[in-house]
Amino acid sequence: MAQTIPMPLPYQSPFMTRRIPEGDDRERDLCGLCGHIFYENPKPIVGAVCTFEGRYLLCRRGIAPQKGFWAVPGGFMELGETSEQGAMREVWEEACARIRIDALLALYNLPQIGHVHLVYRAEMIGPEYGVGPESEEVALFDWDDIPWEHLAYPHVAWSLHHHRSLIGHKDFAPRGIPSEPMQEPSAFKAAAECPAP
Asked: What angle do CA 84, 58, 185 make, to 5 degrees?
């Protein structure tokens, strides 16, 4: 049986070079001995906006980055799983909740940090949830009680707003990064209270 020798990571190899490989159009890290190319690709992140009886499931992050801030359950995909399976796994790991995925809610491309976020719309199968090992706290929030000022990332607010705007819609294209900043719910409430011109 042939022995498999693990390939060192680029930063571990004294023979690593950075150049444009033949037939390519950008610089890559290559092994100077065998020519192996170490591709750096975007990381797919999966998650879900989960609801139960109109309330939103959020997790207070128990790990860095953004420890102590609230987010929808989500994280990096693992090898051997579909994006839907990854989203369901992340919800279970972070919030101990079982979900039924309805549709792909949003696709957020963040090339500046090398991430692609796939966020699903999901219903919790029951009211049960708990605190997973990566969470400090897990809770169901009514829309007006969501801790908007303490959300971990912009995409959390985007996905919550996208979910709310699509309640009752079945066929829709996944949403992307908003072209204009989203207003906070308090701004919507204040606008609704102002008399029409």
From this structure: 110
